[in-house]
Amino acid sequence: MVLPILIFLSSYFIIKQENKLSNKIMILNLCFFLITLSILTLYMSLKNKCFLNPFENYFGLGDLLFYISIAPLFNLKNYVLFFILSMIFAICLQFTLRKKMKHNTVPLAGFSALFLFIILAMDGLLSIPKISLI
Predict the structure, then answer these.
(1) Fewest CB within a 10 Å sphere: which of 2, 31, 33, 113?
(2) CA 84/CA 66 separation, integer angstroms
(3) Across all residues in the chain, what is the average pLDDT?
(4) What is the rounded CA–CA span in Å between residue 17 and residue 72?
(5) Which contiguous run of DSSP H or E holds residue 18?
(6) What's the pLDDT tens digit per position in 48-70?
(7) Which residues are within 8 A (CB) of 32 and not within 5 positions of it... i.e. 6 or more apart?
(8) Exposure class string for 103-131: b at 16+ Cβ within 10 A, else e
(9) What is the pLDDT of residue 21?
(10) pTM, 2 dp
């Protein structure tokens, strides 16, 4: 619980020093994430004909904290792209590792953090177009 807060605060203050629009960017990213989470909740609730808490059924608290904590790091376009690609990456890893995994749940925050690490490594090591941080 403390780690996502530290990541959010450190990334927020680092980006704030470098970019004066960081508050606007962060708010746009958080709005995108909250709208996506709301649509997921609405869809699943309508499908099951009763309200479903997304944190009990489909989305973990760690996932929420992870995506909120990295919100200051990307502009909106790259945040949306990272969000979508990290979901695809998590699905691919889940299918690849499903025989070795003991639980049926998808560790979305962990797989997304691994994907973020890969993005950061590519950003630092390669000179090809990529998802870059702000």
Answers:
(1) 2
(2) 14
(3) 83
(4) 12
(5) helix 2-18
(6) 888 888 888 778 888 888 998 88
(7) 76, 79, 80, 83
(8) eeebbbbebbbebbeebeeeeeeeeeeeb
(9) 67
(10) 0.82
- Whether the CB-CB separation of 59 and 37 falls below 8 Å is answered with yes
Are 65 and 109 a contacting pair, CB within 8 Å?
yes
Residue 43 has pLDDT above 60, yes or no: yes
Q: Which amino acid is at 32?
A: F
Nearest Cα to Cα of residue 29 among 67, 86, 58, 84: 67
| C-alpha to C-alpha distance for 19 and 24, rounded to whole angstroms | 10
Beta-carbon contacts of residue 61 (< 8 Å; ≥ 6 apart): 55
What tokens does 67 get? Answer: 């995506």
Q: At what angle do helices 2-18 and 22-48 cross, to 10 degrees?
A: 140
C-alpha to C-alpha distance for 17 and 14, rounded to whole angstroms: 6
Q: Which residues contact 81 (CB under 8 A, 6 or more apart)?
A: 131
Tell me the CA end-to-end span of the chain in Å, nearest whole number.
25
Q: Which of 65, 68, 69, 70 is nearest to 55 (CA)?
A: 65
